[in-house]
Amino acid sequence: MRQLPRPGPRNLITDVAGLMVGHADDSAAGTGVTTLVCEGFYNASVDVRGGGPGVRETETLAAENLVGRAHAVVLSGGSVFGLAAADGVVAALSARGVGLHLKPGSPAIPIVPAAVLHDLANPGDKAWGLDPPYRRLGMASLDAAGPQFALGSAGAGLGAMAGLIKGGVGSASLDMGGGLVAGALIVANPVGSVMTPDGRAFWAWPFEIDGEFGGGRPDPAVGAIDPVPDDGRLASLGRLQPGAATTIGVVATTADLTTAECKRLAMMAHDGLARAVRPAHMPFDGDTLFAIATGACSIGHGDDRAVRLAAIGSAAADCTARAIARGVHEALKG
């Protein structure tokens, strides 16, 4: 009998060896930053599906361009202000000597793409004037990076909402055997709902492993027949505006993927987002997923390589769905 993939020992994206994650929070402002740090300069790409994204360095990861790799990825609250978190990470990494060295004696140039979510409407104090906290939070999240990290209301998930309930940061992994591992790190702040209409289960429930997000199951009599629930409360909360909500994150694998193959990985991972959030990829969302490949595990050549890439993409999609539900579940637990 075929042995099914299982979560890695942490059930976190850091089960992909060579990756670390750190959070930094500003509880007074109700916002935070989460940074994924690469121990190497790994091939990477990105796929943006939402209609209101806030991003940095995405074109740097395009397969037709020169670099196509990343030293870190920053996920932040704060909408456009949160993009400054990547400035902090860039400065701190450069001070450590991490980055491209184009000329002897010149500063190292780290490649740090980023995506942000909108949490400016939450109750936190956003009267920061000319000194938003995000550059400082970016540096602090880098300092905090390690193999273990909190889920739920932490880092970029601190001020997140998932529809009308708390959102949060989640993660999940799958060990596919033979050194091949896939994982996801997701911050869930969507307009759409992560819960079934009866409120008993997450939309991602078919992909749950070992009760990782509560084991809830929907009422079989309640179907998914209403594609966009009519709920005026979202409009009253100001979340039905371009860029007012989003789900952002990173999927990763140990496979030796090219930058172009990382793009396919990110594209497939968005299927997991659509399984876990209903509806997803709306004009109001900024749904963005990065993909990183550490290159530690060869997946061969030719047709066999394409088949293995497809399997990794499918695993990454499942990890994405599970990570979204885990993040919200942990946030609701408080």
Low-confidence stretches: none
Assess the beta-strand content as a share of residues.
15-25%
Could you state the CATH homologous superfamily? L-amino peptidase D-ALA esterase/amidase
Biggest sheet details: 9 strands, mixed
Number of helices: 5
The Cα radius of gyration reads 19 Å
Written account of the structure:
It is built from 5 helices and 11 strands. It is α+β, with helices and mostly antiparallel strands and 334 residues long. It has a single domain, classed as L-amino peptidase D-ALA esterase/amidase, CATH 3.60.70. Strands 1, 2, 3, 4, 5, 8, 9, 10 and 11 form a 9-stranded mixed beta sheet that branches. It has a two-stranded antiparallel ribbon with strand order 6-7. A hairpin with a 2-residue loop joins strand 8 (168-177) and strand 9.
Defining key terms:
334 residues; alpha+beta; L-amino peptidase D-ALA esterase/amidase; 5 helices; 11 strands; 25% strand
Question: What's the layout of helices and strands?
Answer:
Layout: E1 19-26, E2 31-48, E3 55-56, E4 69-76, H1 84-95, E5 114-116, H2 134-143, E6 161-162, E7 165-166, E8 168-177, E9 180-189, H3 233-236, E10 246-255, H4 259-276, E11 288-297, H5 302-333
Parallel strand pairs: 4-5, 10-11
Antiparallel strand pairs: 1-2, 2-4, 2-11, 3-5, 6-7, 8-9, 9-10
